[in-house]
Amino acid sequence: HQLSGKVSIEMKTALDRLSKCVSATNTLEGFTPFRASHGKGSRIYSVGGKELLDFATGIATASTGHSHPKVVAAIQDQAAKGIHLQHNVCRHPHMISYPNRLMEHLPEGFDTFVFSNSGAEAIEGAVKLARAATNRPNIIAFSGSFHGRTGMAMNMTNSSSKYFAPGSERLGSSVTVPFPLSNTWAGVTDAQATEHALRGLHELFASELRTTSVAAIFVELIQGEGGYHQMPLEYLKSIRDLCTEHGILLVFDEVQTGFCRTGKFFTSQYVPEIQPDIVVLGKGIASGMPLSAVVAPAETFAALPPGSHGGTYGGNAVCMAAADATLDVLVNENAADNTTARGEYMLKEIVRMRADYPFIGDVRGKGVMIGVDFVEPESIGDMSGRFTNRNAAMAKRVQMSALNKGLLLFGPCSTWGHTIRMMPSCLVTQPECEEAMEKLNATCKEIKDSM
To answer: DSSP labels for 84-115?
Structure first.
């Protein structure tokens, strides 16, 4: 799809400069060469003055929007007092205040934290903790999962083969089982998807892996890079029961689903009867500052001897100040209620659009975590919910056409590249959502009219 006018020239210039100095190894298909100058609230601005309504938010990191005044003030205040007060040397105030405040939103007994810099780093820490706590080597992850692009995290990532560079194929100790991929548009129910996935899990234990060798099962309650598919409740209950029976730890990866994005402070709060053993946090934790965490009961962390895990910058004072301020903003500005209302509105609008645009397939989401599939009009689904006519080219066309209309979407994602993700700020307003839906509708109409 050809970009036009000033935007095209600006983007081409930026892309040419970028290709000369920055490796493409960290560039996903969601990349747009929009040259950002600054951001404010739900909008970002180019150096040339173009304004975009941001429904990508740094891949769900800017939970309070861009440069929220209270978060900025907290960062400035802490930077003036001390930028990095290293946690092996001393304890800064936010290292004490923040965990104790965040515990109020976590499952009972989750009282011990290890802070790091990214979701992938926290996943590595959770794997290390699970292995130490169980004295077992193996990890189970799901098809379509994304846990990061480092060592063991990459081993557990199954959303796309693109993450595996030559010579860095799977290192062992991680096994993939089917994700229960239901799809209402294609007629695949949660019950059917659950039956299919449970059969795959039991076949794994019968054929190649002893339960006594499994340290943990890692679960994204809503898959991120996999396309925003939600794990069915009955399947999650079965996983919890299996873990309890066999001494396997259940790990919730809430890196993308946490901090009010789905209408609760954490998505696990939708299923309080199903408790994890370890939780991994990141992305929206500090409004875009690099921070993540592994959280578990103290008795679980007791398996790791003092000094056996950590990093130089984990729990950085400025990042922790941003996290403290982010927590204040999310709670005081009722972010969870806001994402519930805004998400319900947008889902309803996109489902309505589907009647007009046959290339829109399944529409799903919770809160402001919305996935839209793009398909060939005659596409049908099978029992596993996988399509025979996914349309990755259409997903990319929608993304770039929307960009020209001033709407920044993220994607394409999913294994087949046919899903667009919407993940605005958790403080996004109703008028901003209405504007986004108008731009999306105009985009789809323009594409339909050109077909």
So the answer is: ---TTT---HHHHHHHHHHGGGSPTT--EEEE
**DSSP letter, residue 231:** P
Residue whose C-alpha is closest to residue 230's, from 203, 256, 204: 256
pLDDT at 1 exceeding the cut of 50 = no
pLDDT at residue 385, as a whole number: 39
**Per-residue confidence (pLDDT) for residue 28, from 0 to 100:** 54
**Contact (Cβ atoms closer than 8 angstroms) between residue 343 and residue 368:** yes
**Continuous segment of H or E residues that includes residue 402:** helix 392-404
Q: What is the pLDDT of residue 386?
A: 43
DSSP letter for each residue of 199-215: HHHHHHHHHT--GGGEE
How far apart, in whole angstroms, are the C-alpha atoms of residue 428 and residue 423?
10
Q: How far apart are CA 180 and CA 230, in angstroms?
A: 9
Would you say 258 and 284 are in contact if contact means Cβ atoms under 8 Å apart? Answer: yes
In angstroms, what CA-CA distances link 154 with 117, 182, 251? 17, 25, 16
Contacts of 15 (CB under 8 A, 6+ apart): 33
| Calpha distance 378→388 (Å, rounded) | 9
What is the value of pTM for the model shown? 0.91
Residue 321 and residue 380: Cα distance in Å, rounded? Answer: 49
Q: Within a 13 Å sphere around the CA of 267, how many CA atoms are in the beta-carbon half?
A: 29
DSSP state of 162: G
Task: Classify burial at 171, counting beta carbons within 10 Å of its beta carbon; exposed 0-12, middle 13-18, buried 19 or more.
Answer: exposed
Instruction: Judge whether 326 and 284 are in contact, CB under 8 Å.
Output: yes
Of the candidates 156, 144, 127, the residue with the CA atom closest to the CA atom of residue 223: 144
Q: How far apart are CA 170 and CA 111, in angstroms?
A: 33
- What local confidence, expressed as pLDDT, does residue 158 receive? 82
Evaluate the CA torsion angle 161, 163, 168, 171 in order and state its sign. Answer: negative
CA–CA separation, 183 vs 189, rounded Å? 7
Q: What are the residues whose beta carbons fall under 8 Å from the beta carbon of 450, sequence distance 6 or more?
A: none
The reported pLDDT for the residue numbered 2 is 38
Are 222 and 229 in contact, with CB atoms under 8 Å apart? yes
Extract the tokens encoding 368: 């402001």
Band (3; pLDDT cuts 50, 70, 90): very low
Report in angstroms the alpha-carbon separations of 251 from 12, 51, 131: 43, 40, 12
N-to-C CA span, the chain: 13
Closest listed residue to residue 289, CA positions, set 313, 265, 333, 320? 320
